[in-house]
Every structure is written in structure tokens, then in C-alpha cells.
Amino acid sequence: xxxxxxxxxxxxxxxxxxxxxxxxxxxxxxxxxxxxxxxxxxxxxxxxxxxxxxxxxxxxxxxxxxxxxxxxxxxxxxxxxxxxxxxxxxxxxxxxxxxxxxxxxxxxxxxxxxxxxxxxxxxxxxxxxxxxxxxxxxxxxxxxxxxxxxxxxxxxxxxxxxxxxxxxxxxxxxxxxxxxxxxxxxxxxxxxxxxxxxxxxxxxxxxxxxxxxxxxxxxxxxxxxxxxxxxxxxxxxxxxxxxxxxxxxxxxxxxxxxxxxxxxxxxxxxxxxxxxxxxxxxxxxxxxxxxxxxxxxxxxxxxxxxxxxxxxxxxxxxxxx
Length: 321
Fold this sequence. Notes:
Blueprint: E1 2-7, H1 11-22, E2 26-32, H2 36-46, H3 54-60, E3 63-66, H4 73-82, E4 86-90, H5 97-109, E5 114-117, H6 124-129, E6 138-144, H7 156-171, E7 176-184, E8 193-200, E9 205-211, E10 218-225, E11 228-233, E12 238-246, E13 256-259, E14 265-270, H8 280-294, H9 302-317
Parallel strand pairs: 1-2, 1-3, 3-4, 4-5, 6-9
Antiparallel strand pairs: 6-10, 7-8, 8-9, 10-11, 11-12, 12-14, 13-14
Helix pairs in contact: 4-5, 5-9, 7-9
């Protein structure tokens, strides 16, 4: 079993601690949190070993799970990698793309593996349909959340939209051509609601909306491609696949038939896959352990995390244009 240490024992850090302790892939050795009062409280309440020094935690572990505010990601990740330890790091990978590039180069130099916590890749609804998303040409994503002060230290693009950016980049096999975006600050110092239109070199267009001041929660994406429409509800963990094929000459009475202006008839049918429910955070942590043990490529690489950050920062840069 891989010895895992957690850096950061806030809201998400406590979830990671609990899951790592449950996991059969890891041995949880303990955690470090810079806030002594919080560290003491978490240690007493849950019984996790508290390290008083970050270097001691890194030294004792095989894998460090970084669940700290984004501003600290680069420095601590750099320390983890240069000590030759594998790195799981929450999204966004770093504050800047240049920092992410440096981490990638260091990981290659020190021959360690890294994975970024883009957890929606492990959402059961997305996993159920991702193999059916083939060359989408129009994508629409809505990620709306009720207001929560936690996370408002960064723009909504880095807080919420980056999930959809990463998912979209994983299925669109083309480079980004152009980005148009707008963002509005309503209650925070940084934008609370944002919209981005991302156009890819192959002609695909993705329209993304993210808000953290919504009256209701929503996390839905829709993928349109030749002869198919695919819908993913990340919140409800449901998906829908609607396909079209040439209509038979003699369709049955219940067949749904469409006819275009040229007289071509298409039959609509549903091809919904089964959704196998899972714990997405546990899955992302355990597949990372398997990538280390089997010397395979992690599902969400540092490079992919860096690319999602780069596009997210380009969206933010477009707010003032």
C-alpha cells in the first residue's frame, strides 16, 4: 500500500482524509495543516496523526495529497516533487500557467507522477457517456451554485467553470482558436457569474456559463454531434443519449420519424447507458494509486490540469476586452 499524507485539513481536506483512510490502495499516515488550531481540532475529532512539520510529512509519505488554497499550490507541490514523492493536487493546479509548466518539468526530471483533482471526470454520468462523445461540434454547459463564501477568493471561472473547461478539453480533440467572455462581480471582489464562448480550430463551439449566486444548483452539459445529442447531468448523475439513423422503409407504429426539407427521413431513438454510481473523489484517488503501481498515465495528468488552467485564465483575461 502507498503511504499517503494530506496537506490541508479544511472542508475538502477532511473529505480526502476520510476517504484515504477507507481506501484499500493507501495507508493514511497523517496530515499537516498550517493552522495549528484547526490541525489540533481535526486530529482530536477524527484521530488522524497530526504532523507539526510539512517536511516530516513529505519525508514519511509516498504520495502527498495537496488540498490547500490555490495560492500555496506551487510552492508546496514543488517541494513534494523535488523530494521524489508522487503528487495529487486539487484543481486548479496552480495560480499561473507558467508555474504549472515548471511543475510538469520537475515531475519529469524527478520521475514522479502527478494528478490534478478534476473530479467531474470521475462523475458516473460523464463516465457512462464519454466514450460516445465523438467529434462534438456544439457544447453547452451550465454550472450554477447557490452562494457560499468558501471559494470566493478566486473568480468563478477558477472556482466552478474550470470543471467544465477540463471536461470539454478532454473530449474535443482540437486546439482552442478563440475565446470571448464576460464576467460580472455581484457580491465578491472577483466575478461571480461568467459566460465564455470557446471556438476550436476544428469548428467546434463551446458555450459555458458559471454562477455562484444562483437561486438553485445546476451542473448540466449538452454535447451535439453528427446524428446524436448527449446530455450529462453532473448533479443528478444522469445522462441521456439521443441518436438518429436513417429511417426504415416500413417503420413500426411507435417509431419517432423526422423528415427534413429535402425529404430525408431519420428515426430518433434513445441509447441511454447504465450509470454506475460511485464516490468520484475516492475513484480519482484510487486510480492515481493504480497509475503509480502499474506505471501508467494518470487519468487527469499535470499537463491536462495546466491546459485547463491556461484556458480558464484566457477566459478571465477576456473579461476586460
